[in-house]
Amino acid sequence: MKKLLALLLAAVMVFALCACGGSSGSSAPAADSGDAAEAPAADESAAAPAAQSGGSELAGEYAITVWVAEAAVDLTTKQIADFNASNEYGIVFNATVEAVGEGEAATNMITDVEAGGDIYCFAQDQFARLVQAGALSKLGAQAAEFVTANNDAGSVTAATTGGEIFAYPLTADNGYFMYYDKSVIPEEDVDSLEALIADCEEAGMYFSMETDTSAWYMAGFFFGTGCVSEWITDDDGAFVSVNDTFDSPEGLIAVKGMQKLVTSPMYLSSSAGSNFASNAAIVVTGTWDYETVSEILGDNMGATDLPSFEVDGTEYHLGSYSGCKLLGVKPQTDATKAAALHRLAQYLTGEAAQMERFEALSWGPSNLTAQADEEVQANPGLAALIAQSPYSVPQGQIHGSWWDLAKVIATDVEAAQSEEDLQAALDSYRDKISALFEMSEEELNAWSVIGGIAGTSWDTDFPMTEVEPGVFQSDPLDLAAGDELKVRQGASWDVNYGVDGLDGSNLVVDADGTYIVQFDTNTETLSLIEG
């Protein structure tokens, strides 16, 4: 289907109607010949002259499907109606707005691009897969300039691969910071990791940060000392190399700081805001937990950026990942419709629309002007996130295997008895990262079982063998009732299957027993066979 879209689009490009340069039917860069007719910035579109170059060519009605999170369906429907009433180009969208979650949208698009939404929202960690699937229309020069000029650098990075922008930033609120109980934690201690650990130990209450089970949180220690883990992709979004400095003198400093937390008797590897109801004094999490934390702590809720830790007389401020939601435009075979869709995409991601989402849904804006708004700044969760932003690293495209390889570091650090043990943990990590780019074609295509099974905790791949064309089976495994598992390809989360297909739900074992796990790639069916 990707090739078909590319061929059809090539035919219509000769009409030079692609105002946004964004109607490519593949992930390869599209020609920018239509930029002269591109739309103005979305927030200025209502004031643009009706005779704007190329505007009249877009007049007409377009039937489209838009996928957004369930909470945003009504607001998005209103915003599209507002666009219809205000744009000066005669564009009218007859839009069907459907509730499709950000993760589900990406999976559906990858499965069948042609049947997907014309405009859809997705989480940034799905970006590389969508580019590879040809499910995103590349922005032209002026649309790219609109994105770059109006949004924070992290969200722009998240929408970029191979030097080209393929999506529009929608939010910039997927990062983490520190909530704390003000009745337990003195205000003067919030900047010091060591003081905070001491406060929790004295009170007999937990310091909750998910470093043992989540590389996303664990990486903050490394970013705090200046380490990087930058994954490089080619123009098609495939990973070709990595610049990773976790195994360095700065990395050793990071794990020394980490060890202070993970060896505390009051350390809890969790990011759940609900932990405040279960004897936690500190929880490192994000804006999604604001309502939960606020309800539990009330006036005692504090929210601030992450603290600093001290190693050998030098302080290092904990870093973090920052992330966002993006809005994509599906490649179109009709260049006129593609140009109109890109105008709508700019409108939906402009300052006014982002402020509407903040006011209605408390979504944190990526738009720079909206971020500076007094109301946004007054939101405790978003204010803490913004305070942490100078120390955050935009979450770019990350190899799907990295999450499993990196999260082991904290467990190794917790067990370390010496500096040599800490260095050994970093060396082991480095070797595993290097091995990713030494995998054979056979290893990259191999299927395996992974889960909370056979004494493992989502950290061990059990190999599968092809027993007939497209059908793979594991060796017999002793499984317990309640165990959960999935299958994945190439020991990476980039391609994984559950009981309901690609990126689907975990398969849950009903009863104790010995089972063979079977995955049929022909029907995308995952099942258990009593062994």
Average the pLDDT over all residues and give the rounded result: 88
Q: Strand percentage, roughly? A: 15-25%
Q: What composes the largest sheet?
A: 10 strands, antiparallel
Counting helices, strands and paired strands, the structural category is alpha+beta
Number of strands: 29
What features would you highlight for this structure?
531 residues, alpha+beta, D-Maltodextrin-Binding Protein, domain 2, Immunoglobulin-like, ten-stranded antiparallel β-sheet, five-stranded mixed β-sheet, 34% helix, disordered N terminus
Chain-wise SSE layout:
Elements: H1 2-12, E1 60-68, H2 73-86, E2 91-99, H3 102-111, E3 119-123, H4 127-132, H5 141-150, H6 153-158, E4 160-161, E5 164-165, E6 168-169, E7 174-175, E8 177-181, H7 193-203, E9 206-208, H8 215-224, E10 229-233, E11 239-244, H9 249-262, E12 267-268, E13 280-285, H10 290-297, E14 301-304, E15 308-311, E16 314-317, E17 320-323, E18 325-329, H11 335-348, H12 351-361, H13 368-371, H14 374-378, H15 380-388, E19 392-394, H16 402-415, H17 419-436, H18 441-445, E20 447-451, E21 462-468, E22 471-474, E23 477-479, E24 484-489, E25 496-498, E26 501-502, E27 507-508, E28 513-520, E29 525-530
Parallel strand pairs: 1-2, 1-3, 9-12, 9-13, 17-19
Antiparallel strand pairs: 3-18, 4-5, 6-18, 7-17, 8-13, 8-14, 10-11, 15-16, 20-21, 20-24, 21-22, 22-28, 23-28, 24-25, 24-27, 25-26, 28-29
